[in-house]
Amino acid sequence: MSSTTPPSLEIAADKSAFKHLKEEFVSGLTGGSIQEINIVTLVALSSYAVWCTLQTRFSFFSIPQGSKVPSLSSLLVDFLLNWVALTLSITIYASHPFAFNLLILAPVAIVYVSLPSIVATRQRTAQAVLKRRDRKIRVSAHDLNSLSTPSQYAGSLVNNDYVSATFTEPASTHNSNHENVANLGSCYDSSSPYSCTTTHDQSHPLASSASSSSTSISSMSVDAYLPKKSFLTTYRAGMMIITCIAILAVDFRIFPRRFAKVETWGTSLMDLGVGSFVFSMGLVSARGPLKEMFLKQQPDLWASLKRSIGQTTSVLLLGLLRLLLVKAVDYHEHISEYGVHWNFFMTLGFLPPFVTLFNFVSNYTSPAAMSLGVGVVYQALLTYTPLTRFILTAPRTGIVSMNKEGIFSFIGYLSIFLAGQTTGFYTLPTTPRHIPYVSRLLGSGSSGPLAASRKTMLTYLLVAGIGHVGLFLICTKGLNMPVSRRLANLPYVLWVTSINIMYILLYLLVEVIFYPSSDHAPESKYEDAVPWGLEAVNDNGLAVFLLANLLTGAVNLSVNTLDVKNVQAITLLVIYAALLATAAGIMKRNGWRVRV
């Protein structure tokens, strides 16, 4: 630069050069192996296993009586396990993910074997209480048969301090007693250790599990039919945390380039993250259709479309705001990711109305078939039409060609969303018998918890996971189709779906190992099996994601991330994680739920 060049031009030239360097830093990448990605992301599961060990053996994370939050030491360990460990797994220990997992899990194996579980002790105690109660009720029922008049029966109640009720007929009371025994005992063979609905007082400590087949579905409340599930909360929160960490870490050199988003073909950690975000949203979106089915409400297409358009408008406004801010501050962009104007919030924003239409159609067909059908049809267009060539090589001359990646990859993300919703139909409710296609498959005369038991959910997740893995291998190995997040093609859809289903399966297995259940022993409460910090993230996932994007932009505008040394980078990432965790905790502590 000449000495006669004005300083302002020199600054502008420096900014332009720096922006170009940052764009090059995240461009032209080819990704890494799926095996390495799997092992790296397993750290979230390993950390949760450590948390479960500390909780079930020592009640380390229990919230003190009268408080809304755990102790400071509990929060710190929670943060170290669920935030810092994941930060280290994609930075310092990125080249040794298997060893890092072993380092985390080694103490778990020792403590798990050597110390008894507090949960198991509680279950044995409760089982003994239930057996004693069962014997008393059976004796009481036997005595009732020998009583001939209501006055004799009423007199007998005075001598039974464990019964408090009003009766008119000894025979009907006899039946009621046995129904109560059946209902109480069956509460503990449920799909999740964290929900129950019976005719008993729900504040009773033994009435906190899901009801079984002896309790009519019609007697359930919506909350009992769609209870919170600990394995889904931990899965969603863990996915959100590693995604938020990665969107800032990618701008530092300590973050391996093979984990950053690929240019066109290949797999990477961040490619999996963006697809998993959509899958996770699809999973929880199943609550709406399930609630309508449970209440036997006739879906109103136009009313549903109006609601979905409201959701679309708010998220699209976020996407527009992000676009304006990026252009205003001349922030570095990876144009081939979504296009010139499109961004991920726009993809999220356009999903609701399309999903509403597919939900309406799902009353007549299987949502799993719809998800796969969308992916197959889109892949056929990519393969047998010039669409792939248009997306990858067409000049950006019009509004469509300028945003071709975002517009067409939306179809693949829609397929992923529907796959997540299908998984939600099997994992969210106590029983899916009100889903039409399940009822047809199992028969209208079926009774009992169809997907309420853990065994059934494990079976579904295993079969669905293996099925999607098989289809993925057929596409990639048999038909030689490469994975492309840029296109969101069928191999990408199957990869994201299979990984997420398998991880949900693994989280459920961890729950089964640390919080086992039996036919007569009550399972643990939801709060006992979910880290407080993870529930805070799960409650306000989109708000945390928005804050992560804002903080990432602030760091990049104030720090030359390419020149930051490794120690400084880790320090910044931990501070960034702490801010996100604190914000999520404050929202949970105050009961705030940010709805977009």
Automatic annotation (TrEMBL):
Its EC number is 2.3.-.-. The keyword Transport does not apply. GO terms for biological process: GPI anchor biosynthetic process; protein localization to plasma membrane. The chain crosses the membrane at residues 37-54, 75-94, 100-121, 237-255, 309-329, 341-361, 368-387, 407-428, 458-480, 492-515, 567-587. Keywords: Acyltransferase, Endoplasmic reticulum, GPI-anchor biosynthesis, Membrane, Transferase, Transmembrane, Transmembrane helix. One of its GO terms (cellular component) is endoplasmic reticulum membrane. It is an enzyme of class 2 (transferase). It is found in: Endoplasmic reticulum membrane. It is a multi-pass membrane protein. Pathway: Glycolipid biosynthesis; glycosylphosphatidylinositol-anchor biosynthesis. GO terms for molecular function: glucosaminyl-phosphatidylinositol O-acyltransferase activity. It comes from the Eukaryota. A acetyltransferase, which acetylates the inositol ring of phosphatidylinositol during biosynthesis of GPI-anchor. Belongs to the PIGW family. This is GPI-anchored wall transfer protein. It comes from Lipomyces tetrasporus.
